[in-house]
Hints:
The protein is of the alpha/beta class. The chain has helices at 9-20, 41-50, 56-64, 70-77, 90-102, 105-115, 145-155, 173-181, 192-200, 203-211, 234-245, 262-270, 280-285, 307-321, and strands spanning 2-7, 29-34, 121-124, 131-136, 141-143, 159-165, 184-187, 215-219, 252-256, 289-293, 296-299, 302-305. The protein has two domains: 2-35 and 126-321, Rossmann fold; 39-124. It contains 14 helices and twelve strands. A hairpin with a 4-residue loop joins strand 4 and strand 5. The protein starts with a strand and ends with a helix.
Amino acid sequence: MRIVVIGGGTGLSTLLRGLKERVNGEIKDLSAVVTVADSGGSTGRLRKVYNFPAPGDIRNCIVALSESEDIMQKLFQYRFKGGELEGHAFGNLLIVALADITGSFLSAINIASQILRTKGEIIPATVEDIQLCARFNDNSVVCGEEDITEYGKKCIARVEEIWIEPRDVRAPIDAIAKIESADVIVFGPGSLYTSIIPNLLIRDIKEAVESSHAIRVFVVNAMTQPGETDGFSAYDHISTFLKLTGLSKVDIALVNTRMPSDQVLRRYLEQRQEPVIPDVAKIAKDGIEVYAEDLIGEKEDFVRHDPYRLAELIINVYKRHGILS
């Protein structure tokens, strides 16, 4: 089977860690189409200086798919402490340096992927420098991925519309080719407005997904995100995704049913995060097949999808359905 995962952030890299283990087994070809709209932290600072697309989510995906020694993975994720390099991830600096040397952001990703020996291909959603903008229900317009989330937190406002500037950016040809030949296209998990949706705001990515015969799988987040999906149920995630991207359908929804432990839950509630309600019947009424299972693992007091359970479920979905017409 050929899988394309579309998204960004920690959710995407978590999923890739699980899928990586099935490459050369059930998975014949694994690709990640990754958002480059990030504007915060090390990534945001480098974007301002070099006018390159955001490297942060790309770096995390390279590490997630890496087959290199543990020390190389740690080196890519290493963040400098003190001085002008404070907070910069080594991998971000390497990718930007390679892009500057080769004159190509795609070449930089390919070389970095070779260094870490990735089991899969990582493709940016675009190689152009883009800005994410949103209009909230109080009619405020905010630009910048980090600023959008922070405004939502501060004003407790809802995103009504979201777009990228410039609006006419194109995706790399490789991204479109992978989507067109995919058996399964997976959206998420990850920040709904700032990691998943931005990829589908690029017109040729949306058109390639819409014309594909692949099974479309949406992985619903386990927890709500302050400033983005406060109070969202599983159905709200999917319906908002379809509304703002303009896609016609999702075939399969993967929904977590397990509650975090009391200790972990209390800490999340203090940060205005809640478990996403698995309103399975409401999703099913829209003609979407739902797989509702225990999909999370708790590590270091964080609620994350278990990468191996998630990968197993996606493979089982494909085995059951094959290619949908």
